[in-house]
């Protein structure tokens, strides 16, 4: 099989793929990432990804997997919206037996994703910008509406518990687009769980200097300092938890210098806020 060639606008997919494909990685085992990387025609060394960035990507993916695994254990017949999925293999890592799963990303990304992943009656792909909110009609149009009798569900528009994951995505949107997305999800999937990673405003303003992002030409727009701000956008939105990278037990697996840097950052609020995971119910 001829190796797929990556276009410039697809290069932001490669940073997490490269990090997850690292062999002998003690944080996250992702054999699918290794398989994909071996098939892509791209000089990965050109990304120049710092060790700290890779560690953050792996810790983030591991924590989001843990959140999703816990949710799926409590709500096995749930609906999962995986926004900005890229080439991530979260469904493969979690192997949910009953959940219905939607992977969403830009058309050129989904086109590439189809090279490596298959759709089934429970796993769907949607090619759309996350800000073109018409994609939600396709979710509801393709979703089974009858939960199993054993499913422990919460209120939602389609009668099923819903988990929404946005990994490495919202910081690329404008604040108005982030707000429109969250308010629409709140309206159409009330009671759903939303988990995403976020930058502080200072981090978003300065992240353009990151060497890997410079090479891809990606720009960052949105940061948030106080997570309770989102609660003010609509009645019923509730902030549940903030998780900082300095809290990860997997830090003990990192080289001494990286481990020390992460743990030291946990001592300062501005550093903890720089990049963390936020959990809401809508």
The name CATH uses for the topology is Rossmann fold
**H/E element order:** HHHEHEHEHEHEHHEHHE
What separation lies between the terminal Cα atoms? 44 Å
Radius of gyration: 18 Å
Overall mean pLDDT stands at 88
Number of strands: 7
Q: Under the CATH scheme, which architecture would be assigned?
A: 3-Layer(aba) Sandwich
Proportion of residues in helical segments: 25-40%
Structural class: alpha/beta
Question: How many DSSP helices?
Answer: 11
How many distinct domains?
1
Overall shape: it is globular
Low-confidence stretches: 146-155
Main sheet, how many strands, which sense, barrel?
Answer: 7 strands, mixed
CATH level 1 class label: Alpha Beta
Side by side, the strands of the main sheet go 3-2-1-4-5-7-6
**Percentage of β-strand residues:** 5-15%
Full CATH superfamily name: Vaccinia Virus protein VP39
Structural summary, described in words:
- The chain has a seven-stranded mixed β-sheet, with helices on both faces.
- The chain has a single domain, classed as 3-Layer(aba) Sandwich (Rossmann fold), CATH 3.40.50.
- The radius of gyration is 18 Å and the shape is globular.
- Residues 146-155 have low confidence and may be disordered.
- The protein has helices at 14-20, 31-39, 51-74, 90-94, 107-113, 135-141, 175-188, 201-206, 211-216, 256-265, 269-274; strands at residues 79-83, 100-105, 123-127, 162-166, 193-199, 238-244, 275-281.
- The protein contains eleven helices and seven strands.
- Helix 1 (14-20) packs across helix 3.
- The N and C termini lie far apart (44 Å).
- Strand 2, helix 5 (107-113) and strand 3 form a beta-alpha-beta unit.
- The protein is α/β, with parallel strands linked by helices and 282 residues long.
